[in-house]
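[SOLVED] Predicted holo structure with zinc ion

Edit: marking solved, answer below. Original request kept for reference. I posted the sequence and ligand SMILES and asked for the 3D complex as structure tokens.
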Amino acid sequence: MKAAVYHGPNDLRLEDAPHPHVGPDDILLQVITCGICGTDLRIWHGGHRKYPSGTVRVPGHEVVGDVVAVGANVRGVQPGQRYIIAPNWGCGHCRQCVTGNNNRCANYGAVGITVDGAFAEYMLVPGVSIGQGNLIPVEPGADPAVASLVEPFACVVRGQEALGGIRPEDVVVVMGAGPIGVMHMMLARLQGARRVIASEMLPARMEQAKRAGADRVVNIKEEDLAAIVHDVTGGEGADVVIVAAPSPQGQQDAIRIAGIGGRINFFGGLPKDKPTVELDSNAVHYKELLVTGTTACSTADCWKAAAILQSGRADFAWLVSQRYPLDSVLDAFAAAEDRSALKIVVEP
Ligand SMILES: [Zn+2]
Ligand SMILES: [Zn+2]
């Protein structure tokens, strides 16, 4: 079968790969859509810790596919069914796994990360993940490219749940209007946020923020975010600040612009070589701030994300900005690097 195989930093090759062998507990999918995510770009450039030197593997973890073969031990799955794949699984029996946080498991695995993923014609879904509920049905008539947004959107759902959700009285600031930031804005809107303020500096992304429902889009190159938040909130400060950018400055600003009782999510990780930030700890103390961090998503988060995406309550289709066939997967990766693109998907 045709597959995009990682051979080393910046060495992704479209080549003929062995057809996956379906064990008795596994299923085989024909891949319909696989989204390209920041994680895939990090893998491509050799910066992912689960792709140490010498790794030869197919990336791709934002997967929608049709079942083409079912292992003898798998019950309740038939060829022809279309599924979203929640990519992460855990050992299944540790404290994190049994509390619904299999993304925190010390022995976690994931398609496209620890085993072959979906930038390929076919992908194996391992039995261990099927046993944890990682097959999420795609509703009839749904656009598979929209369904493939489940994994990144699940990370967004997780980020906002860490804040106790969004409340009707909340003024929410989202820093960064890339695909993740935009999804944060849409979810905050869906939960009924009073106001959504976006901060960004790239013009194309500022437009995206407007389309996602931001009431005010702040160009941080030209405007003072803190002053605008002060104005919008009558001096009270933001109720929620989500830092959806790998920005130390953004994290510092979040502490500063949050009001009393404010809730903050450090959604984006910082560059590996610069993880230390000077924060005003007294602001956390005296304002009684809740500062949270979230990473990746659990299978439970994916089910919630799929329910929202497939509910029809908001239009997510515009988030898919470009679609590429598998033959053009390298062009697709190059396009994903251009920060004006929203979500790029490969359709094998
Ligand atoms: Zn992803
Ligand atoms: Zn576990």
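OP edit: The chain has a mean pLDDT of 96. Thanks to everyone who chimed in.
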